[in-house]
Amino acid sequence: MAATSLVLDSRAGRSLQAQLSEALRKAIEAGRLAPGTRLLSTRALAEQLDLSRNTVLNAYSRLLSEGYLVGRLGSGTYVASELPERPHATRRARAPHAGAASPPPDISRRGRAIAQLPDLRIAAPGIPASQMAFRMGTPAVDAFPSDLWGRLLHTRWRRSWGDLLGRSEPAGHPALRRAVADYLATSRGVRCVPEQVLIVNGAQQAMSLAAQVLLDPGESAWVEDPGYFAGRGALVAGGATLVPVPVDAEGLDVAEGARLAPDARLAIVTPAHQFPLGVAMGEPRRRALLDWAARANAWIVEDDYDSEFRYVGRPLQALQGFSPDARVIYIGTFSKVVSPALRVGYLVAPEPLVDAFTAARRFSDGYTPVAEQAVLADFITEGHFSRHVRRMRVLYGQRQEALLEAARRELGGRLELAPLHTGMHLVGWLPEGMDDRVAAERAIQAGVMVMPLSAFRVRSTGRGALLLGYAAVREERMADCVRLLARALR
């Protein structure tokens, strides 16, 4: 459908964004935009209609949230194959598309919103994703202390196999809760006792529990923009109204969040190492965030996903430890520190919320497998975990430097990389005007799994970039992997 068939009136009493949303919605319902139709890019439509790109972005975002549009990574925005129910709307037949997944027509609005979230799991044909370089969030599995872990498992099984075959408490294995509380107090400055620690199946489940316990459907929640996709997914699954808050050099812009939604009930943040941009939230901004939560009677979910890997100075203190009465739910995971196969994370809840979180865990999936918890408790209490973190900190620092050195030789003018003091990935900025989704798709076809920054944006715009996870790439492979990326970007 040509942009000229969309009639907007700047003198009307309604905003241009609302007019554009309605015009596109009517075109879809009338069949002028058929299911599966690829829409113009936001930039192209903005130019044709003489609108700001933000106006078009917000209109598309609204139709995405309503289920009229779907986004596909590296491909664009399309009319949904199955449209949401509306009074007097005509039902449409499904239009099959490669890779498209449409929800059935009889699920809830919340279920439809979950189903329409884009799937970022992509792999090149014939290449297992686990073998692709630069995969995000993957630690150095090649450096996992497998022999030690095997001995600990054997010893634990010999000593207490009967206990390992039984059920665990919903809040977790007591020995692991004590070990996590001690570790967080000494390494992250978290204020807690073991009774406040809940063991969960990874950070994703912790976020889902937080949304379930703290939010009623329709209530507003701040999310970083760009930000962690799984956090947004947990809130959508909980029925929350997302409020994308921009991120600057100091992390989440608290003043802008308070302007956009001062009465939000929750904020998910990554203050020690913002995902995906890598910036750290300074103390004034942290104080402002805590003050907002106290004034608004809101909660902060602190996702501390990889702060152990700080290469300059000591790790930053957790936001949760700034005040004894901080309204913070602290989340961490062992998946990125030990192994992605170890689906064990933890949640530190303020004492008044412990019973509610425990009950929510009981009625979700009950508990985390006992054997993994028991062995992990031994791994921590015997000092192996701290030594492993120290070794990985050195190794990841070396691998980051190897990536930067290879990039200086192979990627000049194509990708701008700068070192980061924390974490397991770098942000590579593309030349102005280059589409990062297209660049990521070509890189994946070449055999290296980079992610486009735009995949983690909601409303924010700006220069395209690629995210490169380097922790799992051996130094001797780094140069060859960077050459594959350089070839793809040509």
How would you describe what is shown here?
Helices cover 39% and strands 12% of the residues. The chain has 490 residues and is α/β, with parallel strands linked by helices. The two termini are 33 Å apart. Residues 86-100 have low confidence and may be disordered. It has helices at residues 16-29, 42-49, 53-66, 109-115, 146-164, 174-187, 202-214, 229-237, 254-260, 283-296, 354-362, 370-381, 384-410, 436-446, 475-489; strands at 69-72, 76-79, 197-200, 220-225, 241-248, 251-252, 266-269, 299-303, 328-333, 345-348, 416-417, 425-429, 451-452, 465-469. Helix 7 packs parallel to helix 8 and helix 7 crosses helix 11. The chain folds into 3 domains: 3-115, Winged helix-like DNA-binding domain superfamily/Winged helix DNA-binding domain (Arc Repressor Mutant, subunit A); 129-144 and 388-489, Alpha-Beta Complex (Aspartate Aminotransferase, domain 1), CATH 3.90.1150.10; 161-386, Type I PLP-dependent aspartate aminotransferase-like (Major domain) (Aspartate Aminotransferase, domain 2, 3-Layer(aba) Sandwich). The protein has an 8-stranded mixed β-sheet with strand order 3-10-9-8-7-4-5-6, with helices on both faces. It contains 15 helices and 14 strands.
List the helices and strands and how they pair.
Layout: H1 16-29, H2 42-49, H3 53-66, E1 69-72, E2 76-79, H4 109-115, H5 146-164, H6 174-187, E3 197-200, H7 202-214, E4 220-225, H8 229-237, E5 241-248, E6 251-252, H9 254-260, E7 266-269, H10 283-296, E8 299-303, E9 328-333, E10 345-348, H11 354-362, H12 370-381, H13 384-410, E11 416-417, E12 425-429, H14 436-446, E13 451-452, E14 465-469, H15 475-489
Parallel strand pairs: 4-5, 4-7, 7-8, 8-9
Antiparallel strand pairs: 1-2, 3-10, 5-6, 9-10, 11-12, 12-14, 13-14
Helix pairs in contact: 1-3, 2-3, 5-12, 6-12, 7-8, 7-11, 13-15, 14-15
